[in-house]
Write a sequence for this structure.
């Protein structure tokens, strides 16, 4: 993190799902010279409104969000693309004498923005097809063993059934001639030219966050999450392995539409998956030593966040 006092300031408002980030950000935008940049890998997709808890039209009119509705659900959006877009927006916001307020729960995007990205090669369609054929012929456990021969560190970290990551690690090795574990240590030399105020909304009571998560997912189902996905499938050529369809909530709704789970299982599995997402987000946040932690369950949450920013 840059500490130079001459650098422009930016605010990171981070937290797990259902921690109240959006509500706080919207209110801050009413009283402070900030512009909101969404840091959410699901909000980028058009038409995915209910399952992502996307701010509604009225809210976006009160507090416009950058990087919302910028991709069709058939497309991909990477940490590298986010970093490029966010840096461009942060510079433009600063030139307007305003402060970038980056809000969201996609911790990989925050990490990419602050630390840069490892120099991994881009995906190669021909090589992907070649690896698909090898996996079909030999099985994913055999491919995991082959990965262990060239990148033992990565193979040890991955489950023998994790097809997507095993394939990507092999692809990286064959494209670059170097193990992924080595390339991950090589970051692009591009320091973030901002002073960051990192605020993390952390629940003082995990059980109460779980209650919020359960209530929110139930509300999404009541609002029509399944109907929303059915409409998306009619308008786009979707399949379950797309990044958009792997989003929590949509993955479970897809299984429901395919008849793989029933309505009760949809509710239970959706809540469980959201809780797991929150757990991963909190693990990321706990690993960041310089965050200012505020209890997201506090009744005066907005006042506390406002006070830290003002100071």
């Amino acid at each position: 993190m840059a500490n130079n006092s001459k650098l422009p300031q930016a605010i990171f408002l981070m937290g797990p799902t259902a921690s109240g980030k959006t509500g706080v950000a919207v209110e801050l935008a009413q009283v402070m010279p900030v512009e909101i940049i969404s840091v959410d890998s699901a909000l980028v997709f058009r038409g995915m409104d209910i399952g992502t808890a996307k701010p509604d039209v009225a809210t976006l009119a009160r507090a416009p969000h950058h990087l919302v509705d910028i991709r069709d659900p058939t497309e991909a959006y990477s940490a590298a693309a986010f970093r490029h877009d966010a840096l461009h927006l942060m510079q433009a916001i600063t030139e307007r004498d305003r402060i970038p307020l980056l809000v969201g729960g996609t911790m990989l995007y925050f990490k990419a923005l602050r630390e840069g990205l490892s120099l991994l090669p881009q995906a190669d369609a021909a090589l992907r097809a070649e690896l698909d054929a090898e996996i079909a012929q030999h099985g994913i456990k055999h491919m995991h063993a082959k990965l262990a021969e060239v990148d033992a560190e990565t193979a040890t970290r991955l489950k023998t059934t994790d097809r997507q990551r095993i394939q990507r690690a092999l692809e990286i090795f064959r494209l670059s001639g170097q193990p992924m574990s080595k390339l991950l240590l090589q970051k692009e030399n591009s320091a973030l030219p901002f002073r960051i105020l990192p605020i993390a909304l952390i629940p003082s009571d995990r059980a109460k966050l779980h209650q919020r998560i359960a209530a929110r997912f139930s509300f999404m189902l009541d609002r029509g999450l399944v109907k929303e996905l059915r409409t998306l499938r009619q308008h786009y050529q979707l399949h379950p392995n797309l990044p958009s369809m792997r989003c929590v909530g949509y993955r479970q709704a897809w299984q429901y539409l395919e008849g793989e789970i029933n309505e009760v299982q949809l509710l239970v599995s959706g809540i469980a998956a959201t809780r797991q997402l929150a757990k991963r987000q909190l693990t990321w946040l706990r690993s960041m030593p310089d965050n200012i932690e505020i209890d997201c369950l506090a009744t005066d949450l907005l006042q506390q966040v406002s006070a830290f920013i003002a100071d």
In short: The CA atoms of residues 82 and 109 lie 7 Å apart. The two ends are 19 Å apart (CA to CA).
